């Protein structure tokens, strides 16, 4: 199967996604039902809009009526295939090839098990499940059903990480010795998602090491190519706490906060003035009405609350040391307090090293000092979103899970690493990983 790639605008900003221009010809499009029409459901929907001959979304389950209606309109989904509750999807006989589960973290297990029981293939957003027991339950159900379960570890499909893995495998830097990997969340992203937002509380969603960093643990396991045997982690919630609230601050940024204009986390500045991350508000179509609508959301939802007065518990800094079979080590750092996003990677080998930042890398040989540069402009997931979708569509069409890189079996290992890291962080011990 030949795939060429071109650049295509992702939204009205400067980010892009790399799209496969063509696939192997198929008789009719693979059909899917999307459970969860939020941000990730929207991305996978874009793929269907761009490639209707290969992929067609014919059903949606979304409790937010505005998102439900907009998604149905975009994808021309008939009313009888629009559901407010995911459970209602499975009261009917199977009417599509696959189910895409892009619901909140703790609403993955139920719909995934129901989909497999009903005979659907599944594309499952990460994290797989909030516990090891539930991950293994899904794996068992997948084997029993004979259906494909692909996990949205999209970084495995990003050209940057594919190139990095290829270089390591080829011996370009000799024998792999160690990896340093940084996930800079970026300070505004941290407050948006993990202080004010949907993932602010680890007990009602999942710990940040899974909610945010399961991608990174998965990539480290994929790059090393051997099982992780032990984890030692540290970190905690250092800054976004009541005692750090500036004098003159208020419960909400809209309550006359005396330091609002100088606060880097001002909700008024982020959402109203700069209009960043406003997709969470399901803005009205009338642009003239959007400003007042945003301000009302800031007065009534968590997105307008002071970041120092939330019920958040997610760590804002997190480090983990990982030991892999054969002696390879990796150090992973998840950090809120950066001015930038985009993962940074340093790979150390016996005969060279590689330094990269998701869009480019420099490979240096110890033998002759020669430096080779690799670069590619991609979207925020490194071009992986649509490549994942392309492979999932073709895997479902061929009923062949081997066409996927992020199979359920492969992805569970990184979740076990995450569970071990959280146990280590909380108990202050080195935790063995048993896959």
UniProtKB/TrEMBL annotation:
It comes from the Bacteria. Residues 33-152 form the Gfo/Idh/MocA-like oxidoreductase N-terminal domain. Residues 165-431 form the Gfo/Idh/MocA-like oxidoreductase C-terminal domain. InterPro entries: Gfo/Idh/MocA-like_OxRdtase_C, Gfo/Idh/MocA-like_OxRdtase_N, Gfo/Idh/MocA_Oxidoreductases, NAD(P)-bd_dom_sf. It holds the Pfam family GFO_IDH_MocA. This is Gfo/Idh/MocA family oxidoreductase.
């Amino acid at each position: 199967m030949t795939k060429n790639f071109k650049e295509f605008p992702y939204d009205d900003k400067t980010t892009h996604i790399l799209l496969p221009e063509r696939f192997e010809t198929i008789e009719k499009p693979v059909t899917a039902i999307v459970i969860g029409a939020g941000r990730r459901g929207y991305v996978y929907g874009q793929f269907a809009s761009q490639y209707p001959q290969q992929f067609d979304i014919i059903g949606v389950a979304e409790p937010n009526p505005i998102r439900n209606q907009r998604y149905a309109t975009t994808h021309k989904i008939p009313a009888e295939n629009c559901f407010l509750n995911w459970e209602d999807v499975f009261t009917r006989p199977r009417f599509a090839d696959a189910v895409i589960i892009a619901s909140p973290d703790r609403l993955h297990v139920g719909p995934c098990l129901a989909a497999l029981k009903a005979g659907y293939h599944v594309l499952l957003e990460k994290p797989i499940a909030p516990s090891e027991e539930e991950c293994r339950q899904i794996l068992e159900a997948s084997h029993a059903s004979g259906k494909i379960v692909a996990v949205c570890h999209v970084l495995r499909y990003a050209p940057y990480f594919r190139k990095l893995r290829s270089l390591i495998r080829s011996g370009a830097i000799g024998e792999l010795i160690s990896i340093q990997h940084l996930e800079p969340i970026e300070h505004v992203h941290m407050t948006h998602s993990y202080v004010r937002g949907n993932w602010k509380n680890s007990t009602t969603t999942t710990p940040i090491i899974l909610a945010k960093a399961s991608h990174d643990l998965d990539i480290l396991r994929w790059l090393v190519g051997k099982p992780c045997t032990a984890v030692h982690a540290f970190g905690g919630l250092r800054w976004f706490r009541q005692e750090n609230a500036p004098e003159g601050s208020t419960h909400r940024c809209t309550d006359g906060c005396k330091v609002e204009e100088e606060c880097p986390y001002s909700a008024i500045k982020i959402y109203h003035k700069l209009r960043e991350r406003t997709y969470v508000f399901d803005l009205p179509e009338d642009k003239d009405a959007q400003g007042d609508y945003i301000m009302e959301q800031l007065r009534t939802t968590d997105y307008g609350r002071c970041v120092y007065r939330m019920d958040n518990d997610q760590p804002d800094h997190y480090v983990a040391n990982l030991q892999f079979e054969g002696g390879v080590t990796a150090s992973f750092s998840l950090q809120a307090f950066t001015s930038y996003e985009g993962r940074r990677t340093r790979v150390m080998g016996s005969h060279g090293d590689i330094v990269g930042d998701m869009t480019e890398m420099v490979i240096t040989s110890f033998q002759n000092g020669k430096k080779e540069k690799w670069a590619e402009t991609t979207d925020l997931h490194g071009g992986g979103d649509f490549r994942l979708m392309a492979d999932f569509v073709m895997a479902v069409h061929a009923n062949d899970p081997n066409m996927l890189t992020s199979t359920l079996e492969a992805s569970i290992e990184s979740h076990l690493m995450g569970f071990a890291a959280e146990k280590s962080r909380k108990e202050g011990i080195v935790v063995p990983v048993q896959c």
